[in-house]
Amino acid sequence: MKRSWTVIDFVLVWLGGFFGATLAIFAVEAFDLPHPLAIGLIGQFVGTFGVLWLLARSKEDASLGWSVEPKDLRYLALGIGLQFVIAPLMAPLVRHLFPDGRPPQEIADIIGSPDTAQFIKIFLFLTAVVFAPLLEEVVFRGVLLKALLPRGKTVAIVASSIIFAGVHLSGLRTDRYMAAVAVTIPPLLILGALLAWVTVRSGRLGPAIFMHSGWNLLAAIVLLLPPEILEQLE
Asked: Which of 12, 16, 128, 141 could be disulfide-bonded to 220 (CB atoms 3.0-4.6 Å)?
C-alpha cells in the first residue's frame, strides 16, 4: 500500500546521507584515497538521493514539488540581498565572538585556508552554491515540509526551519562551539523559515533552491577572495 511522505521518511533520507558519507570516509581510510572531504560529500549526496529514490517508489504522490522555471532566477538575487541584510546585523556579534576573523563553520574555514588545493576550493564552492542547495531543498523543503504540512502551514514552516538549523550544528567549529552556535543558528532559522514560506507559497522547490544558492553564493565568493582583498574590505 502506497502512502504519503512522513517525518520518518525525512529521518531515513538524512540517515542515508550520513551513512553514505561515513562509508565514503571508510573507503578513504581503507584505500588511502586523497581529498577525504570531497569524497565524503559525494558519498553524502549518493546516500541521500539513493534512499530518496527508494522511498519515492512506495509513494502514492512521489512528487516533492520539483519544478524550476526561468522566473525563479530572481530568487537568486533575493538570496544575495538577504545576506546583505542579515550579515551586517550579525557583524558586531561575530566580531566580538570571533576577533581572529576565522569563520564559525569548519567547511568555510577549509575553503578560506591558503593550504587548501585550488581544485578542492572550486569543488567546495560548487558544493555550497549548487549541490548543497539542491540536496537540502529536496530534503528539508521537499520531504520534511511536505510531511509536516498536514499539521498546518505555520507549524510546518516553524518546525522545518528549526530542524534545518539544528542539523547544521554538526558542521560548526568545535573549539568555540557555543560561540559558533550563537552566530550561525539565528540566520539559519530566518533563512529556513523564508525558504519554507516561499515553497508553501509557490508550491514548488525552484524558488527556494535559487534563494538558497544566492544565500550561499555571496559567502562562498568572500571566502575565495585573497587575504589582501579581505583586509581592504574590513
From this structure: 128
**Position of cell 559525494?**
42
**What does the pLDDT look like over 15-70, one tens digit per residue?**
999 999 999 999 999 999 888 989 999 999 999 999 999 999 888 877 888 888 99
Q: Which distant-in-sequence residues (6+ apart) come within 8 Å of 107 by Cβ?
A: 37, 124, 128, 171
One-letter amino acid identity for 225?
L
Q: Which is nearest to 136 in space by CA: 49, 227, 21, 226?
A: 49
Report CA dihedral (115, 181, 135, 158) to the nearest 10 degrees.
Answer: -170
Q: Give the type of residue at 32.
A: D
Residue ranges of domains in the chain? 1-62, 65-233
Inter-axis angle of helices 153-167 and 177-202, to 10 degrees? 140
What residue ranges of the chain have pLDDT lower than 50?
1, 229-230, 232-233
CA atoms of 174 and 86, how far apart (whole Å): 24
* Helices and strands: H and E segment counts in the chain: 11, 0
